[in-house]
Every structure is written in structure tokens, then in C-alpha cells.
């Protein structure tokens, strides 16, 4: 058989049987590392939900109260991004 | 809070197709046409120098003709997450001949007796496997493989499958050209300046894929040479030599698409 063909076929064989680049294996990650990442994600997701709750509606109270301090009712002066004025801008 | 899936997994099934083609030399009349159309560079006035340049061009014309529109496509390899995950498919136009060495490795090979027939089959296969949502991938596909395929489909009056139809009439086909993106994966790419050409052999090195790969055994430029030899062997009745050379071309084409798929997967985070 032709030399070049022989080499090409063996190269094909290698290519099909062995993955040349070793991919990152999830098993390489220890349980402790995984735990840390999940905790961090939990914090980020919680922060995301907090933010959503804070800025989505509930003008008369709800979670905005935490910025108000007057126990109820919406007050533009306590709006986190700019006081005074006539409501939302 | 509900459980966070980890690691983040793709929710959609992957839908891509890697394409690679091989071409032969253009017919002789097209090559002589290239030579006739040749114009000397404007800054060269000396007739002797012009003659020397013309001779230079003539010598290279045959080699360069394999990249022109007149050159026939002799093989097309496709591989991807559309039913060709494991072994891929190679269609070739070098006649029907047994390729046991490739079949032993599970490669699906279909031989046609002409380019037109091969492209008809390709058109049917692509029509089944790909739609205008299928991501087409490959090395330099945007400027070589895809336009070349469209051109040859038209010249052979074979239907252009929807996945190969360019233009605004349909939703744009998603394409990932590894040559186009190669420079974003190498700190050394800047050395090439503005030259957009980034050879696949070099990309393999950049990505840490097998080195030297199959391109160390033969290069794309050798394909038309081997093809010419194979067709000469067929014409002279040397079936054994023809089968060997055709097998070599198909193996090379297949290895190209395998490596291109690896590169594409690495570059798009599909480890």
C-alpha cells in the first residue's frame, strides 16, 4: 500500500480513538469547590431577586418601605435615585 | 430558590454541520483562459520582464486553477450534530470503488461517477439534514467552501439546498468560519498584519490540536495532484492504483472535517 495512504489511515485511527486535547473534567472539581461555587451562585441569585422586588412596582409601599423609613406611603424624596419631583421620571 | 443546574448545560440540542470540500484542477481550456487573461503589473514595462512574469504565472496557473470557479469539486465531507456525529459522510466524484480501509473505520463513503451526480446527492442530503437554522461551520467556508459549492451546484444545475441559499430572501444562515475567528484565539495572530489568511495547520497549533496533524502528511495542494493521478489510473484501467489514490483523497478530506469540527467545538466552548 502507498506510504502516504498508510500514514493517513493511521492518523485517522488516532484521531478517532484518542481525543488529543484533554477537556476539563467535572470530576476534577472537588466537592468543596463545587460547594463554594453553588454558595456564591445562591448569593448572586438572591441579590438578583432582591433587586427585582425593590425596583418593580409597589409604589405605595411593599419592599420600597425599606428606603422610606416612614412606614408607608410613597415619598419621592426617598426614591433611591433622585428625590423631589412629581413621581417617576 | 430552586436548584441551580450546574454546570450550565445547553438546553437546545446542538444543530450544526461542518463542511469541507476538495477540488481538482480546472479543465485545460479554463487554465489557458487564465493565462490569456493575465495582465502584467502596471509598474513593469520591460518586455523581457513581462515575458518572465508571464512564464511564472503560466507555471503556477495549473496549481492555482484548483481554487478557481472553473475547478471541479471532487469530494465533500460533512460531519455534525445532525445525525453524523460519529463518523461523518464523504461524497466523492471519483467513481464507485471499494474503500475497505475507510469502511473499517466506520466512515460513510459514497462515490459518484461525476461531479454533477455527487452534487445532486449532496443537495438531497443537505436538504434532509440542514435547514436555515443549522449552523454551518468550517475553515474558510465563507470565502471558499460555501461559495464554491453554490457555484458548482449551479453549473451542474443541481438544486441549491435551503441551507446554502444566501441573501435576504430567507433568514440568514448562521455560519461559523474558524478562519475568520482564528485571530481572536492567538496572541501571535497580529504578526500576520491585516492578512485574513490563517491556515488551518496554524490554527491546529494555536488550539493545541494534534501537531503535526494529517496536514503534515500531505497538504491541500497535493489533492489535485493525487486526483489527476487517480483519474489517469482509472483511464488506463489500473483499478487498484485508482482505488488507493481515491481512498487517500477521501481520507484526507475526512480528516480535514474531523479536525475542523474539533477546532469549531473548542472555539465555541463545546468541549
Provide a quick synopsis of the model.
Chain A is mainly α and 89 residues long. Chain A is 49% helix and 0% strand. In chain B, strands 4-3-2-1-5-6 form a six-stranded mixed beta sheet, with helices on both faces.
Structure description:
The complex is a heterodimer of chains A (89) and B (271). Chain A contains three helices and no strands. Chain A has helices spanning 3-17, 31-55, 65-68. By secondary structure, chain B is of the alpha/beta class. Chain B has a six-stranded mixed β-sheet, with helices on both faces. The longest helix of chain B is centred in the last third of the chain and has 29 residues, at 239-267. The chains are: A mainly alpha (89), B alpha/beta (271).
Topology:
The complex is a heterodimer of chains A (89) and B (271).
Chain A: H1 3-17, H2 31-55, H3 65-68
Chain B: E1 16-23, H1 28-37, H2 47-65, E2 73-80, E3 84-92, H3 100-103, E4 108-111, H4 115-129, E5 135-138, H5 141-155, E6 175-177, H6 178-182, H7 200-207, H8 222-235, H9 239-267
Parallel strand pairs in B: 1-5, 3-4, 5-6
Antiparallel strand pairs in B: 1-2, 2-3
Radius of gyration of chain A, taken over Cα atoms and rounded to an integer in Å: 30 Å
Q: Please report which band the strand proportion of chain B falls in: under 5%, 5-15%, 15-25%, 25-35%, 35-45% or over 45%.
A: 5-15%
Query: Total number of β-strand segments of chain B?
Result: 6
Biggest interchain interface, per-side counts:
A-B, 26 and 30 residues
And the CATH topology of chain B? Nucleotidyltransferase, domain 5
Total of helices of chain B = 9
List how many beta strands of chain A DSSP finds: 0
Main sheet of chain A? Answer: none
- Helicity level of chain B, as a percent range? 40-55%
Q: Given the helix and strand composition of chain B, which structural class is it?
A: alpha/beta
Average pLDDT confidence of chain B is 88
Low-confidence stretches of chain B: 1-8
**CATH-defined superfamily of chain B:** Ribonuclease H-like superfamily/Ribonuclease H
